[in-house]
Amino acid sequence: MRIEFIGYAVSNIIHRKTRSFLTVLSILIGIMSIFALISFGIGIQRYVDEVAKEAGADKLFVQAKGTGSVDDTFAISKQDLNVVKKVKGVEQAVGMYMKVASLEFKGQRKYHYVMGMDPKDNDFVQESFGVDVVKGRSLKQGELGKITVGYNYQFEDKIFSRALKLGDKLMINEIPFEIVGFLTEVGNPEDDANIYMTDQAFESLFPEMKDRFTVVIAKAESTQNPEDLAEKVSEKLRKFNGQEKGKENFEVQTFADAVKTFTTVIGVINGVLILIALISVIVASVNIMNTMYTAVLERTKEIGIMKAIGARNSEIRDIFLLESGILGLSGGIIGVLFGYLVASTGGSIAKAAGFSSLQPVFPLSLILGCLAFSLFVGAISGYLPAVQASRQRPVDALRYE
Amino acid sequence: MKPIIRLVDVWKTYEMGDIEVHALQGLNLEVKEGEFLAIQGPSGSGKSTAMNLIGCLDIPSKGHVYLDNHDIAKLSESDLAQIRGRKIGFIFQQFNLINTLTAMENVMLPMMFQGIDERERFLRAKKLLELVDLGERMDHKPKELSGGQQQRVAIARSLSVDPDVILGDEPTGNLDSKTGLSVMDFLKKLQKEGKTIVLVTHDDNVARQAQRVVYIRDGKQVEKVK
């Protein structure tokens, strides 16, 4: 193929502006969607990996089976916790209380999770959740009437219409608590609205939940494989509660297990959306093919002339292939640009809604991949029309009016 | 003078549905190097088919076409394209310029298929357009030129690869007589410079200006019946 053909192909594309524009538009939409969706998919994957690295893949979670989240009907007792603590390979284990409570501030009422735990485990829990104190201080052992609160409470209109400050009093189930600290951002609105108090404070607020932990977080010793340890913990707890394997009412998850559900769901949703976007690319490809068949028909005489003045079949084919490839690539370039805008806007909207963890990522490989894909789709779609063009007999093509 | 193109007992048969049409029926014809030959015949005589074969646009159903002693019936399509691109310059009745390209680009196009580099293409095309008196109109598209001007662009294009043979299919057919005459004069000048000129025409006035005229009727060469 000669490089000069590019100029010729481009001039032909420009010559039929409207048709080229519509064709480019059709592929642009598909590439834009694919680019934006994948950028979010990668962003979420990166976030999960990051959390796993920070919080540590060495954590195990023991909680009620089934719902996967917080369930009032099942709790882990202090005895259970002691069993977990005694399992060989468990470095540390803490029980955490969690319950939805009514929060009231200056006449405004909201419902969010209240977590209770022994402040001596603060560092460990904060490490597990990937949070730290951003303002104020942590809770002290035995402290009643004091709370630390999630990141979002510091801002207006995030949880309450007013921003909360250190020293503000928040009514939890009609009992006043003073805010002594704010935590760093987790990146989703639910976790950033959590309230933390000491175990004693929690037990006096919810006496019925005393010694009934919602979740136990355990840390594996560095030499331990968390998967194996989860199996061991599970076995010990089963024996302790006299339950059969497969019929236990608790679940021991490693960190990887815990995020796997999340990433699988996100992955499936993302995959389905990408599939839909792919269908639109297929439609675009049919469109390109149609455009190119029309172009071949329109330019039959031109093909004849070019053959008469020495164009080989392969050269005619290359000219038409180039045209469809350039159409595809143009759609790809604009699609990537638009996809970038759409994904960035989407990211900002997600951030404004509290999902700062839901951010698109634009690696170079994604950009190049989308461009290569669009070029490929263009070339593939143009292949049959191009071959048809190249096979015209010069005598017949010249006679065509 | 040695022959540059030889048609030996050439048959060309087209199938139109169930009917076989013999456009050429054993045509024998020689084009000598450097001559100005006119092929004359009424419409339907097979002269256009003969031109297609002389121009390597088509291959015979039967018989042999020799260009420089190579039988073109044995060549692949690619080789055929390459040969006609290098050896033969076409001038058509309909001019057959590419409408989306400028005069300059049209003249440069055949050289592109011969792999001549861009600068060389430009210089040669410029020289040729000046030669046909279109130095001022190089950037015009065919639609912006008169018929005579378009045919001059076509002549410039046919000369761009410096072919041995210029093949004209009724080159003056769409021109007024004055413009037609100047095109003929130009072709004669080219012959004097060593080119072989072959014209296909039904027009006596055109044929008369050639050195030699060959008459075709019913797909065969005939004596002139006049």
Describe the model.
The complex is a heterodimer of chains A (401) and B (226). With 401 residues, chain A is an alpha+beta fold. Chain A has two domains: 184 residues, no CATH class; 174 residues, no CATH class. Chain A is built from eleven helices and twelve strands. In chain A, helix 2 crosses helix 9 and helix 9 packs antiparallel against helix 10. Chain A is elongated, with a radius of gyration of 31 Å. Chain A starts with a helix and ends with a helix. Chain B has 226 residues and is of the alpha/beta class. Chain B has a single domain, classed as P-loop containing nucleotide triphosphate hydrolases (Rossmann fold), CATH 3.40.50. Chain B contains seven helices and ten strands. The longest helix of chain B is centred in the last third of the chain and has 16 residues. The radius of gyration of chain B is 17 Å and the shape is globular. Chain B starts with a strand and ends with a strand. The mean pLDDT of chain B is 90. Chains A and B meet through helix 1, helix 8, helix 9 and helix 11 of A and helix 2 and helix 3 of B.
